[in-house]
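Worked example 2:
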Amino acid sequence: MNDIQLDEWISKLLDDSISDEETRSLKQALKKDDAALAYYLDVIEIHELLLESSQDGKTAWLSELPSQKSSRRPYILTFVAGIAAILAFVLIPRTLREKSNQSHATVTKIDESEERFQVGALLKQNQTIHLKSSRLAFAMASGVDVEVQGPASFQVLDKNSLSLVNGQLAAYVPPEATGF
């Protein structure tokens, strides 16, 4: 099935001018193609939102837009892209904040033998890190500087605490990191 045919069937359905045979074809196409079904549901949802807005008098400006009877997909895709952009601006900063809350330490120094980490890498919260014989230094978000000598296992619990399962560590704890 091609996109032009799908657009035509959906347009006819929304204009209430679809034939019984076209309705059967549309139903069959939507059963077979998940992408077509997702597109159909998006179009129907947008159509319903526009109908609700027009009843409130909020979309009178839409009648001033040029219409393309042959294909409405460009307008729909532009509308969906705009909504996606707005959601991205809202959700991405929140996602970044959540990620920053999950990492409370940054690698500051590593042995050459330790290839898993790079200076500037973030250590994930509650991830158990095993060092064989290397040395790893990192700065915690609270200002504590830590150096762990392998063999060792540890976890960064939050911005001001960690759990050393085994091995040796040295830490510089500044006054503002009280409670480390």
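Strands lie at 103-110, 122-124, 128-131, 135-140, 145-158, 161-172. Residues 73-102 form the longest helix (30 residues).
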